[in-house]
Specification:
single chain, alpha/beta, Metallo-beta-lactamase, Chain A, 7-stranded mixed sheet, 6-stranded mixed sheet, 11 helices, 15 strands, about 20% strand, globular, binds zinc ion
């Protein structure tokens, strides 16, 4: 039976007795269980586990929100992830800083990974509160690099990359217009940081949060697991309803990120199946191992679809139309092509696909042994 708790609008940190919120469920799960059916309203927080508070920030995309977490940290607060680097997000933070944090300061900032909805305001929050950013070295480096690169070189490299993948002229034009999208959604992350890594236990208010590293969605994504309350802050590594994007990017055009993503799925099984998972998008849920199974199956189905499509030579753009059947705008097509390449490269490295560069400059893949 699903048990749910519906917070009332305006429920605040003080009003929500955490212990009453989340009755334990016993794995294995036949389906994902969502103990909290209603997300907090903008600018408000809800305590989802002892000392762990949930807030949401808006995103101006089809995926219209991100979940952030506030952890009670002795005399202050640890913030996990920041929201996108926009004036709107800053306004919501300012309101929270003024009214909702119970008069306690922010004493630490942790970012799960470098994507702009997660690290977009790290530089601003760190400066505002004079606190250190805690992140993996790789994520911080990517955030610093992309936010500070004001050259056009990376844009040209990206356009050449998507042209080889078979993107049409309209899509390439949209890319040119888009420019350095990371820079637009980000205040540069701080120039110094505290590096975290696999196996480290971060002490927050006497509670140990174990760092688990994921890869494939981003290079060195930090997930945080607290055994004493059985809570996993999963970032984008495990999401309940959508499959985290796993893309090849122009910066490393021969990459095989799906191998790392699938390996991470297996590694995360070390975290108990009973954990309450706090994802960056969607609702908190229980059923971690079931969700890991579903994600592995999802990619298995995509592998089959790619192989079925590649009985003849296919570009990444061709494959994207097979894997993503709904209408995609130019922004979504970037992710769809990147994700298609991730499947193509993985199958190629496993010896199942061959490739050739056409006279039109487009790379196409075909099942080994297939003939036309
Ligand atoms: Zn992400």
């Amino acid at each position: 039976m699903k048990r749910t708790h519906r917070p009332r609008p305006g429920d605040s940190i003080a009003a929500m007795p955490a212990a009453a919120l989340l009755p334990a469920e016993t794995p294995p799960f036949a389906e994902l269980v969502y103990p909290l059916a209603t997300p907090p309203d903008s600018g408000t927080t809800v305590e989802v586990a002892p000392g762990v508070h949930w807030l949401r920030m808006p995103l101006p995309f089809r995926l219209d929100h991100i979940n952030l977490w506030l952890l009670e940290d002795g005399p202050g607060w640890t913030i996990v992830d920041t929201g996108l680097g926009t004036e709107k997000t800053k306004q919501i933070w300012r309101g929270l800083f003024a009214d909702r944090l119970g008069g306690k300061p922010v004493t630490r900032l942790i970012c799960t990974h470098f994507h702009p909805d997660h690290m977009g305001l790290a530089g601003w929050i760190a400066a505002e509160w004079k606190v250190q950013l805690w992140a993996t070295r790789m994520e911080w480096l990517w955030g610093r690099m992309l936010s500070l690169d004001d050259s056009d070189h990376a844009i040209e490299v990206g356009i050449a990359f998507y042209a080889r993948a078979g993107m049409d002229a309209t899509g390439l034009d949209a890319l040119r217009q888009r420019g350095n999208a990371y820079r637009k959604g980000t205040v540069p992350p701080p120039s110094h940081m505290r590096a975290i890594g696999a196996g480290e236990i971060i002490q927050i208010s006497g509670r140990g949060w174990h760092v688990h590293i994921g890869s494939g969605h981003s290079p060195e994504h930090a997930c945080l697991y607290a055994p004493d309350i059985d809570v996993l802050i999963a970032g984008d590594q495990v999401l309940p309803r959508i499959s985290p994007n796993v893309s090849v990017w122009g910066s490393e055009p021969e990459d095989d990120p799906l191998a790392r993503f699938l390996a991470t799925i297996e590694r995360l099984r070390a975290i108990p199946a009973s954990a309450l998972v706090l994802p960056s998008h969607g609702l908190p849920f229980r059923g971690l191992h079931l969700r890991l199974d579903q994600l592995a199956r999802h990619h298995g189905i995509h592998f089959d679809q790619v192989m079925a499509a590649c009985t003849d030579w296919r570009s990444a753009q061709d494959v994207a139309r097979v894997l993503f059947t709904r209408e995609l705008d130019a922004h979504q097509m970037i992710f769809a092509i990147g994700e298609s390449l991730a499947h193509l490269h993985n199958l190629e490295r496993r010896g199942q696909l061959d490739r050739r560069l056409g006279e039109d400059g487009v790379i196409r893949f075909r099942a080994l042994g297939a003939s036309t």
